[in-house]
Amino acid sequence: MNQFMVDALKAEGDDPERAMARVLAEITKPETTERLLNLVLPHVEQNMRTLVYILTQGERIGHLVLETNIVDTLHGEGYDRILIVTRSPDTSGANRFALGIGEPRIKHIPTNDDIVLLLGILDQGIGTIGPIDILMVSPEKLVADFVFHLAKGGVPKVIPLRPDLLNRANAFLGNLGKTDDEPMVILHVRDMTFLPQASHHTFRCAHIANYRPAVDWLIEQGYWVIRIGEPDSASLEHPSPRVLEIARRADYEGWMDLAFSALCRFAITCQSGPEAMVRIYGRPSLMLNIPPVQLVPHAPGDIFTFKHVRETATGERLPFSEIVARALPMFSTSEEFDARGLEVEENSAEEILAAIHEMVETLSGARKHDGQQSKRLHALASPLDERLRKEDTLYTYAHPMGHISEEFLRLNPYFLN
User: Fold this and answer.
1) Most CB atoms within 10 A, among 8, 87, 145, 337?
2) What is the pLDDT of residues 228-261, one digit of tens each?
3) For residue 9, is pLDDT > 70?
């Protein structure tokens, strides 16, 4: 968390409204704008139309990659250069290779100036100062605008993988024995080794053991499976040399996450930051274990499954219509589910394997989605979407983005009833 924000909360007795007032008073001072200009002007070239964006949470790979892609997709048209001010990877622990996404047109400018970085929470649109335009949009509004874009049939802008990373990836995989005709899948499963102090996010996590039968099947079909994530996550402990848990390897480097995401046949993801790496390179995604959540930017060809929500007292699973009626996608912590006597249950090994079969069949052309189940999903989601539209936002699943897994629905006929 931004240290100036932490200090403001402490100074105001943990009162968030008073702390925010203190923050706003500081970041709207003229000298804050001057500090921003001192950062970016050395990178502005003559006769190049330049857009500046302040990315406040650059320590998170999802924000760093996703927001970079959104800014380019929604606002990049007509600009010769995009400058993104974000946290220095030397202090944030962020993947430093992600700061090279989109080069040379997109340039990330690292800083540890907490006050300048907090300019990124403002929602003031685009303003012009001297030779540059500055995009002042909060992360929340930026993502909502992006989902609006996708809901209207827009697509994310695809960023090419840097040639040097492509060459390194091909050499690395070739040394391990992978040939060009062998397909590769990226696997990411969020667990509590990521941000272990954030216990309120347990409802977003899953166990890797449930993915083991699907990994076995993919290996039998001739795939390589490359798992990305935290080095301390529970291991698959798979005997095949075609299963690589790269974060656990002694030779792991951050560029691998990006390069392998760009080269995969498809990715098996979850509702967590690394899924954005797959989207920026235009690769298909099977997103599993989605908890009740408001905004998820699915690309057109994606397939997804949901976690189950059950009553703790009775064990009864809630159908999607009830999840919408109770506005559960507006929850952001595990404690909110606990307080209402609800449990969020991850996908079973059977559900995961069936969805992966579906994804492989879909990509091969052997299976076509007629869209009827997804239309049913959209209709059931519309009451919550109508409510959110009044607040200038929306609910992803009321709109045509990707497809709900037909295999998930076959195994769970209750879900759309």
Assistant:
1) 87
2) 998 889 999 999 999 999 999 999 999 999 999 9
3) no
Residue range 262-276: average pLDDT? Answer: 94
**Three-class SS string for the chain?**
CCHHHHHHHHHCCCCHHHHHHHHHHHHCCHHHHHHHHHHHHHHCCCCCCEEEEEECCCCCHHHHHHHHHHHHHHHCCCCCEEEEEEECHHHHCCCHHHHHCCCCCEEEEEECCHHHHHHHHCCCEEEEECCEEEEECCHHHHHHHHHHHHHCCCCCCCCCCCHHHHHHHHHHHHHCCCCCCCCEEEEECCCCCCCCCCHHHHHHCCCHHHHHHHHHHHHHCCCEEEEECCCCCCCCCCCCCCEEEHHHCCCCCCHHHHHHHHHCCEEEECCCCCHHHHHHCCCCEEEEEECCCCCCCCCCCCEEEECEEEECCCCCECCHHHHHHCCHHHCCCHHHHHHCCEEEECCCHHHHHHHHHHHHHHHHCCCCCCCHHHHHHHHHHHHHHHHHHCCCCCCHHHCCCCEECHHHHHHCCCCCC
Measure the N-to-C terminal CA separation of the chain; round to a whole number of Å.
Answer: 42
Question: Which residue's structure tokens are 């606990």?
Answer: 338
What token pair was written down for 263? 């080269």
**Residue with more model confidence, 294 or 197:** 294
Domains and CATH numbers, the chain: 3-151 (no CATH), 164-411 (3.40.50)
The residue that leads in pLDDT, 191 or 170, is 170
| Mean pLDDT for all residues in the chain | 92
Phi-psi region of 177 (alpha: psi -120 to 50; beta: other; left: phi over 0): left
Cα separation, 229 vs 246, in Å, equals: 8
What's CA 295's distance to the chain center, in Å?
10
Beta-ladder partners of 243: 225
Average pLDDT of span 355-362? 98
For residue range 56-74, list pLDDT tens digits in order. Answer: 988 888 899 999 999 999 9
pLDDT value at residue 260: 97
Which tokens sit at 25?
């008073």
